[in-house]
Amino acid sequence: MSDSFTKSMARNIYLGGSVFFILLFLVLTFDTVRTLPKRDHRENITPQVALGKKVWEDNNCVGCHTLMGEGAYYAPELANVYDRFGKNKDVIKMFIATRPKEGVPGRRSMPQFNLSEQELDAVAEFLKWTSEIDDANWPPNIQG
């Protein structure tokens, strides 16, 4: 065997590695396509959940909070807030509705959005729906 690294050896390593990683990519893609429908619960989207998502977006909640790891990291993760508040939508609604108008003195806190009762119901329903997504145990603890 020769002690030098030839062009044909480099080509074979490149082609072999390329084939390996293309096959790996295809296997992982197939597994994902096969697994995702089992985790999907889009059929549970009601008009109230859709309104809650719209309120979420209109008030830029993701500007401070994360939802399943996506968003800003200033405020708590909200993917499990429904579980954290004892699976009680009324507690979520009360928490949002009773934010001080000026915020907590000395620090930045969640503002008062003055949401209507219908909007509060919708946001609570959206957060409940979000907590029911199979998110592979994210966040890893109940505190978010």
Domain tally: 2
Distance between the termini: 58 Å
Low-confidence stretches: none
Order of helices and strands: HHEEHHH
Instruction: Tell me the major beta sheet.
Output: 2 strands, antiparallel
Instruction: Please give the CATH architecture of the largest domain.
Output: Orthogonal Bundle
The spatial strand order of the largest sheet comes to: 1-2
Number of helices, where a helix is a run of at least 4 consecutive DSSP H or I residues: 5
- Let me know the CATH homologous superfamily of the largest domain: Cytochrome c-like domain
Overall, the morphology is: elongated
Strand content: under 5%
Structural class by SSE content = mainly alpha
Average residue pLDDT: 89
**CATH classification, class level of the largest domain:** Mainly Alpha
Q: Oligomeric state of the chains?
A: single chain
CATH fold annotation of the largest domain: Cytochrome Bc1 Complex, Chain D, domain 2
Task: Explain what you see.
The chain is built from five helices and two strands; from the N terminus they run ααββααα. The protein has 144 residues and is mostly helical. It folds into two domains: 39 residues; 104 residues, Orthogonal Bundle (Cytochrome Bc1 Complex, Chain D, domain 2). Strands 1-2 form a two-stranded antiparallel sheet. Strand 1 and strand 2 form a beta hairpin. Helix 2 packs across helix 5 and helix 4 packs across helix 5. The longest helix is centred in the first third of the chain and has 33 residues. The N and C termini lie far apart (58 Å). The mean pLDDT is 89.
